[in-house]
UniProtKB/TrEMBL annotation:
Residues 1-158 form the Endoribonuclease YicC-like N-terminal domain. It comes from Dialister pneumosintes. This is YicC family protein. It comes from the Bacteria. Pfam families: YicC-like_C, YicC-like_N.
Amino acid sequence: MRSMTGYGNGTASNDMGMIEVSIKTVNSRFLEITVHDSKLPVSVSQEIYTMIKESLERGKVIAKITFTPSTALKQKQITVDTDLLNSYMDAFSKLKDIKGLKTKKIRIQDLLDLPVSWLHVDEPKIEESELILLTKEATKVALDQVMDMREQEGQNLAQDILRRIDWIEKQRIFLVENAEQSSYAYEKRFRDRLLDLIAETGLLLDKGRILTEIAAHAEKTDFTEEVIRLGSHLEQFKQILLQEKVVGKKLNFLLQEINREVNTTASKSDLIEVLNCVIMIKTELEKIREQVQNLE
């Protein structure tokens, strides 16, 4: 199990230069990948994008790649087209042999001003295939660090969530023990009020029928089923948390079911002890929900 928060940085180098890749991830409902590539070839960015997509399931991912060329690569290469230059010099020599044509001494600037240049300044050539290899190496290092951090934080979150789930289970047992008392208290209170009303007004009513209706209504206030289902949800929550790697969406769904059972329990009882217990459970559930939002 992993959280969605992580950071990693990787580098790789060869004679051409050095590639540095940094990857930062935060929580998000889906997988969102952004790559800042410093105007490198599209294939380089695509390589990072593909590797991230194959490694992560959820989270907002921001990757940055920079390329620092080597000193040798920064130096421009100057080449002389000696064949062309020799041809020019031969042509100038022939001009001298033409009678009546005045010529002057040839200067370097005269040669540089010729229409077809014999002097070439070559920009350093970056091999795209080499860039991709460096990118793969640096990205793997960065991703490994991200995964390690996400797994470590995920384990820390899991331990805290499990501790809170165990605490909620103890409160659930308290609710189970008070379910019958809550229903009985409601029935007794309602029955006493009604019987007092009958005695005060002198109404002739079928007490047996009245008591039957009261008992039936009191049964609707019994939240035993809700707290039993709550126990099942809590156990399933723990199993998913301990056994699966990608858990965020499943746990979010289960939290909704758990909240539903807790809310129904609160609506069926007016015992102050039960209501206080429900309030504390809901407080813990909100803390768990916030933590689950950061799980992959």
